[in-house]
Every structure is written in C-alpha cells, then in structure tokens.
Design the sequence.
C-alpha cells in the first residue's frame, strides 16, 4: 500500500485532523486521494468523476501517477464496471498532469488544518446527498468550515440566490423569504455574493436559522472580501463549503460550477432578483436540469433587476412565487421524495455554458480565467491554472488570440483588458 | 307576418334608423326581435340564445308572445334542429314573461335613435365574430355608439383590463402596453372602468389607435359617470358597445357578463394590475375558458395591486408578459387562426360565478342587483329587474332573507346596507 510517493507518517496525521472518528489505512489513503483530486481536476470534470467512481479515488490517483496507458486504463475502468473511452482518458490525463505534484495536496491539507477546514466525502453522514444527483459531475469531496453536520440540512433546504446588483425591493423580499423559510424550518443555501445572496444569509442568521454558503474558491480566503465578517459568522453558526482546496482562487469557471453545487444540494432553488444575464440564472438552469423545483420572484416590469426572474417564468418553466409559503411549497417538508428531484440527465452548464458566456466554449472560459491582464504567463502555466492539457491550452489561446481576447509577447500570454469575448 | 302586436309603420322606421342599408320586411322583423330580446333576457342567457338560434329571433319572440306550451315549444325547437328541454323552456318563459311588453322595446329603440346608437346583429359585416365562440351564451345583438365598422378590429385586438384601484405603476405599465400595441396595429378593447381600463383607452386614443369600450349598461347613460368625457371621445374616435338596450342600468350581473364579451371579442386578454379578488380576474377566467391567450403583468410582490396578476400566472396558466412585444405575441397578427381561440366548451362564469361572489348563486347576484337599499320593491318588480321568474325571485328573496342580506316590509323588499353575502 503506497501513499502516492509520500509516507504514511506525512499523510495520516494530516488526514486525521480533517476527519471525525478513526480511519483505517485504506480510508486514510482514499480520503487523501479525494482531497488531492479536488485540486487535480476542475470542479465538474465528468471524466475524473467517472474514474474515481470506477476505481476509487486512490486507485484512480495511483494509475494517474503511474502514467497508465490510456487503453489499459480504460480496460481497468471497464473491469470495475465503469465506462470511459481511452481517448477521453488520455485527454483527462493530459489536463490533470500539469497539476500532478503530490506536494500541492500536502500544502492544501496543511492550509486546511490551519483554517479549521474539514473534509467531507461521499458516504460520510455529513455528506449532502442531493449532490449525488449530479452523477459523474458530482463533487469528489467537499471542504467545510463551520459545522459539517449542518450540510445534511441543505438536502431539504432552499437555495435563495440572485443578483449582486440587488435593489432595495430585492433585498426586502429576500429578507422576508429567508426569515420566513427559516421560521418554517428550512435551511438557507446561497453563494455569499453581494446583494441577494448576502441578504439571504444575513436574514437566516438573524432568525437563528441554519445557513450554508457555497464558495467558488478555497476556504483559506473568503470571497468576496467585503463579506469576510459575514462568512465568519456563517462559519460560527452554519457552514461554509467549497469543492476546491485551500489556495484555489475563485474563477468564472468555478463560479459556474459552484452554482451547480448550490442547486444540487438544496431541495429547491428560488431566484429573488436577477437581471437578464445574471449569474443566478445559471444556478436556476442547474436546478431545472436536475429536476429540482425552481421558483422566481416577480418584480416591477420597469425594473431591469427583475428581468431575469420574469425570463425564468416565461422561458424556463420557473414557478412564480411571491411569499415564503409559496416558496416552501416548492420543497414540501412532508414529501421527502420531493427533495431529491428527478435527476433528469446531464446537468445543464456541465459544459460551462452560462447565459452570459453563451457561445464561448468552456475551455475558453477557463483559459481566460487563468490569464492576467498584467502578468504574462506561458502556456504551460496557463494549462495548470485552467486544468487543461498544454495542447488544449495552446489551441484555445490561439483561438482567443484570433478573437482579440488575448495577446502573446515574448514574456507570455496576457488577457486584453476589455475583449469582446471575455467576461 | 305580424310585428308582435305593433304595426309595421311603427317598427320599420325605428329599425331602419339603427341599421345601414336596406332591409326587407323579414329582416326588419328579425332585427326588431333581436333588439327586443336584448331587453327580455339577461346577457348570457343560454336558453334564450339557443332558442333564438333555433327559431330565429322573430320566431322565438312570437312563440313567447303566444305563450306557447313548453312541450310544443320544445318540439318546434327540435324540428328546427335545436335542443332545449320543455322544463328549461318553461323556466325561461317564466323569467322572460315579466319583461314581455312590446312598449319596452319601442322605448329602447327610440332612445337608441336619440343617442345615435346603432344595432349590430350576427351576420352583419360589423359583427365581431369572436363572440360567436360563446355559443348559446353569445350576445343576441350588440348596441353600438361610434363607428360600428371598428368592431371587426376587436377580433384581432387585445383586451387590456385591470383593477379600478390601480397604482401609478399599473397605470404606467398600461400606458406603455396600450400605446405599444397600438403602434403594432392592435385595437385595444377594455371596459372603460376607472384605473387600468380608463388608462388603456386613453393611451390608445393618444396614440391615434382604435379602441373599443364594452359597457355593462345601456348606452344612453355612460358609466362610470366620471368617464363621460372619455367615453364621448371613444364614441368620436372608436366604438362603445353594450349588449343591453338603452335604459338598462349596469348591475353586478351585467358587469360579469360584460366581461365575457370583452374576452370573447378580442384575440387575447392581458391583465395589467389586479388585486386578489379584482373583477378583472373574471374577464381573465372567461378568456381562459374560451381558449383565448391570457397574459398577466407581474409587479412587486409587496403590492397587493399585483396579487391577482401573480395568482393568474400561478393558478390559471396565464403567460407572464412584461412588454408590448410579449403581449403582441399572445395575439400574433400573422396567424389569423389564433384569434379565434379553441372555443373550449362552456365559458366559465356563464353561471355568473365570480371570484368575489364565489358561493353566491347567480340568481342571488341578480336579485341583489335588482334591489335598492332604500326603495322597497315587490317581488314581481324584482323578478322583472332581475330577469327571473316571479317564483325564482320569491325563492331567492326568501333565501337572502335567511342570510340577512335582504329584509321585507309591507311596502316590499329592500337590500340591507352591508349584508355579509352581498357585494
């Protein structure tokens, strides 16, 4: 039994700190491997998810470290009852390889210990089973600050999401919604962004309710920084969750993937206020694709901050909701089956398509995320940051250069400041 | 060929004044009979509608005057391809008889002449064919002030309706909707009430559009009186319509029936602002029952003036609409089939059920309409005013007395001022 090039003496104490109860050697290895995978693959990587499901996190990691031949790799997945083509495995290995340094996982675990971050994996009693409906796109593990036991309450809870650019009306309605749902016994799940998200958490805390914030970056640094005090309070009274390890910055890609976790964790999603292209529509699309009930709060047709909500009702079959009671109806507490949704097929946006980024391929979003407007980076660095193979990174950089979104110099690639195709 | 106890010399000049073009003797009789029927039966009387459809207006009127035996009456209806039971015919005759005085029709026609009112009957080029979807509940004739030729434009037009108690928001959105639809070539149909209706007409006039007001009472007196100037302008530039003859006051029953005409006339109905129990929800229910597209404009969930609109979207399948373009989509101009709806079965509310009067039977609404809080009336008078048989009027009065809604004295029946069951 190996520890991926590390010693058991290095790994075991680190893993033990992150976990409740005793672990045997294999459990320790599996947990370490899951932690490592959250840094090696980008959130929502279907091939990584299927691979871990077939071979176990440790087996998959070992094969990766051993640079398995894709054809043999695919055969062993098939032996384990999984199904992955050698080509997609080869592509996966190419995009995972740039991040395959065992030191990174150790650093992430050390940081986690420093910040009191726990690791929750599928099968743990704390695991929010709703995310399993994401199938191969499900998180491989979740990092948690606060009380991990509260995560199970997300399963019957309601996600309250909306625009950063909220109006007084939107904030008022969010406050009523959040405190009303808390009074009815629901946990409030949201993304801790400015505007609607922040108000949802605040009102839940003010009503002594359970609230869970799902972040796009590592839990060593709270984002947005203006919500550091709020997130600290959520840690004290609720839980803050991420599927990426400490040290991972939030990127556009990770925000989009974070949204799928919010939608999948909760029994229902309600959009309280959202512009025509608000990111919260992406959360709504995930909820809808998962067969989770989706609600939208209407507002004045003269307010662009409600245009996205109206769009959800008109075009995406969202239920119009106006009161906490109507929101609670979306996630009935006496109908436990309801909570799990229908798990209808592939989640929308698993390919990274976001209303605001429509037409921009997932790789392009991730490469733009990996670039700076000032510091030039070489394509290998870009590949590692984007979680793409060097070849894919180079091809995407070339495409984006043609679009005028990025420029190359001798020092490396930079993102242009206001490219048409970028965010 | 008789003229219902009158001479041709009395009838023909009156009828001729109300009609364009030449009429032969039979057409004159039929038109006079239709005019008489609009006063004899209450709007939406299914039995009257079916009878006129089977025997023609003149034949039906003659049989009524001759006090035909219900069984023979039913047989002659069956011979003509109609279907009416002798019992419902007997009940119909009992409720029509109290109003069966030929002098009333003559007075109505004289009043119509005085006010420049025209009579439009099915088959006329001006007839708004949408109302035919009401089947036996369709108007027997329509009285019109203004340009009757504009009525055909209602068929492809949009009904914009809403609460009397409109907010500044509702009026603003109505103005945008009405002028935007006029700009796109749509006629605006509404009920000339205060609030949303009035704004819909005003904005249409201001945009030089076609607008049609449907009233619940006779056209000799405009209701509401505060809209007399507005209705005079609609007469000059559009058309004002009613299915009841001059001299007929608007009653709750007639408002409810008027709403079915608004919905049936138009290609689509949009509710712009409505409280939880607004009368405009009755118009919406008619539109929906007729298979006509129904739209509702959302507003702040904190505004009770939008609660009815949200209810329509949540409970009655209304399409949420936010712009004139989205409203126009409900009544596409290039899809003429769309205009006619599906004509799905019996219209809701043909029985007079109104959200605000739920639980109160149609006869009770009509009897309450027929009573005064001050002037006592005997049951025969009440029967004639309510368009009910004396027996039905007496029975209903007794029921309402038990409910405490009406009281009897030696002088007659009066309505109590704030009865629980009344309006």
Sequence:
């Amino acid at each position: 039994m190996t520890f991926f090039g590390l010693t058991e003496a290095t790994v075991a104490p680190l893993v033990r700190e992150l976990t409740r109860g005793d672990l045997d050697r294999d459990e320790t290895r599996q947990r370490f491997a899951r932690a490592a995978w959250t840094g090696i693959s980008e959130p929502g990587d279907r091939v990584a998810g299927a691979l871990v499901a077939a071979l176990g996190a440790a087996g998959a990691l070992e094969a990766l470290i051993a640079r398995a031949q894709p054809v043999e790799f695919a055969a062993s997945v098939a032996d384990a009852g999984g199904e992955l083509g050698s080509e997609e495995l080869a592509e996966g290995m190419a995009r995972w390889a740039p991040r395959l340094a065992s030191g990174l996982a150790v650093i992430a675990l050390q940081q986690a210990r420093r910040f009191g971050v726990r690791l929750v994996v599928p099968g743990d009693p704390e695991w929010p089973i709703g995310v399993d409906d994401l199938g191969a796109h499900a998180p491989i593990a979740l990092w948690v600050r606060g009380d991990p036991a509260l995560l199970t309450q997300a399963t019957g809870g309601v996600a309250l999401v909306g625009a950063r650019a909220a109006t007084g009306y939107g904030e008022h309605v969010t406050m009523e919604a959040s405190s009303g749902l808390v009074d009815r016994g629901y946990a409030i799940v949201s993304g801790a962004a400015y505007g609607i998200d922040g108000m949802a958490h605040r009102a839940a805390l003010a009503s002594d309710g359970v609230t869970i914030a799902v972040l796009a970056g590592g839990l060593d640094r709270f984002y947005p920084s203006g919500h550091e005090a709020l997130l600290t309070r959520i840690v004290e009274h609720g839980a803050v969750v991420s599927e990426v390890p400490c040290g991972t910055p939030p990127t556009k890609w990770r925000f989009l993937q974070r949204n799928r976790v919010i939608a999948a964790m909760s029994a229902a999603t309600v959009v309280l206020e959202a512009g025509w292209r608000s990111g919260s529509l992406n959360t709504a699309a995930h909820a809808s694709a998962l067969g989770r009930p989706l609600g939208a709060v209407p507002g004045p047709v003269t307010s662009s901050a409600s245009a996205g909500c109206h769009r959800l009702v008109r075009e995406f079959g969202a239920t119009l909701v106006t009161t906490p009671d109507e929101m609670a109806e979306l996630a009935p507490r006496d109908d436990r089956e309801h909570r799990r949704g229908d798990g209808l097929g592939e989640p929308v946006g698993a390919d990274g398509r976001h209303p605001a980024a429509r037409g921009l391929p997932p790789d392009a979003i991730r490469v733009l995320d990996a670039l700076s407007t000032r510091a030039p980076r070489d394509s290998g660095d870009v590949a590692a940051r984007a979680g793409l193979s060097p070849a894919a990174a180079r091809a995407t950089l070339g495409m984006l250069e043609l679009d005028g979104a990025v420029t190359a110099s001798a020092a490396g690639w930079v993102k242009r400041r206001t490219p048409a195709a970028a965010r």
Q: What stands out?
A: Confidence is low (pLDDT under 50) at residues 335-358, 419-423 of chain B. Chain B has 17 helices and eleven strands.
